[in-house]
Amino acid sequence: MKANDATVLIEKAISGDLRSISRLISIVEFPAESGSEVVGNIMKILMKRGGRAHVIGVTGSPGVGKSTLISKLIAMFRKKSYRVAVIGIDPSSPFSLGSFMGNRIRMQIHTQDPGVFIRSMATRGVRGGLSASTVLVLEALDGLGFDKIIVESVGAGQTDVDIINISHTVLNVVMPGAGDEIQALKAGLMEIGDIYVVNKGDKPEADITLKEVIDVLNYEGFVRESGWKPRAIKVSAVMGTGVEELVGIIEEHLDHLKKVGFFEEVVRRRRIYGSSIVLRHILENRVDEIFRKEGGEMLRLVSEGEIDPYTASIKIMNRVLGRAF
Ligand SMILES: Nc1nc2c(ncn2[C@@H]2O[C@H](COP(=O)(O)OP(=O)(O)OP(=O)(O)O)[C@@H](O)[C@H]2O)c(=O)[nH]1
Ligand SMILES: [Mg+2]
What we know:
The chain is α/β, with parallel strands linked by helices. Helix content is 56%, strand content 12%. It has a seven-stranded parallel beta sheet, sandwiched between helices. The protein is globular and about 65 Å long. It binds guanosine-5'-triphosphate and magnesium ion (MG). Magnesium ion (MG) is lined by residues 66-67, 99, 102-103, 152.
């Protein structure tokens, strides 16, 4: 792509043209295919403009109702005239096809709205967490001027850690009867929410679950680094009940971050953390490539005791670093 074409595309995307946004996001989503110069030029402009979007991470076990809830959040945010982008992270496994389709279907009603951009990414990072693509797409959407960027991820291990590190506000969604989650929360394993959302509030057991979550939060006295005390709320994403109140708490959390000066700090940390994700991703891909091409011979030598694993690894690293990226 010529520099001039990129400039025109960026201008159109910034003006809000969804097709241009979609094209631009596809370019940064696949940096290896697009070329580092093209991606670098686009990101240089967008990163300078960015740092203003409110990033909301939505995490929780499969099927708790994240996508249904996000669809309702989009509607509420649109009422306030915010421009909203959603990134759906789908673990790249054959089992996740249902989730991938579910995410799409449940947010479909917004696809005609020019103030809403939704991108599902069937990618996963090398450590099981976020991928380089997710990091770049997030920064690009921020630079394009979206007010709210919602990241949906199936809560699990490294992905959860990544979500905390890139989000201003983390919604941890649980559903009634989620005994394991409550235990995890008690054990300090699930201390990752700014707002705990008990979804499926239309079910009778929801009140008990909400009470359990509140009890744990009070008992443990969790306080986030910004000084925010995590809150809990019951909603029904399907019925739409409690969602307006939830949006109120989300905005309260944003106000809090801005008041204590933590909003910019999250952006700063996100960009540094994101860089480490991208670096690892590039390195790991390159290591894999070298390993596939030349690893066989090296592994044969190791297996026969001709060289040791450390020396073999250093040799591979030298090959990895021998090429300009
Ligand atoms: N009763 C009830 N069902 C709900 C509610 N919210 C979502 N569901 C249902 O729960 C199922 C899963 O909803 P999704 O929104 O796809 O859940 P998800 O967490 O995005 O699922 P994954 O992306 O696969 O992890 C669907 O059948 C929804 O209709 C709710 O508030 N009440
Ligand atoms: Mg979903």
